[in-house]
Amino acid sequence: MTEEQATQQSPELSIQDLASLKSIIDVASQRGAFKPGEMTQVGQTYSKLEAFLNEIARQQEAQKTQEGTQESAEIETPQGE
């Protein structure tokens, strides 16, 4: 891949990247990296990020449960009848 191709691709941000960002904010706040006046904005952003990640985890769990239910139904249904 050339440099030009790399810059033309849109940047990707994964769920794992967002989880890492949440951890970074957590560590930075514990170490006192933010000034008191910045804490409100940092806290609001952290809360939004946490809610988003929790919703994604909930959706993934629901999808796994649904797939498991579908697989069980397929196993119980006799083929060729």
Give a structural overview.
- The protein has a domain at 36-75.
- The chain is built from 3 helices and no strands.
- It has helices at 3-8, 15-30, 39-76.
- The chain is flat and about 60 Å long.
Task: Reconstruct the topology from this structure.
Blueprint: H1 3-8, H2 15-30, H3 39-76
Protein traits:
81 residues; mainly alpha
Q: What order do the helices and strands follow?
A: HHH
Multimerization state: single chain
Q: Estimate what percentage of residues fall within beta strands.
A: under 5%
Poorly predicted regions are none
Largest sheet composition: none
Radius of gyration: 21 Å
Compute the average pLDDT: 86
What does the overall shape look like?
Answer: flat
Structural class: mainly alpha
Overview in brief:
With 81 residues, the chain is mostly helical. The chain is built from three helices and no strands. α2 packs antiparallel against α3.
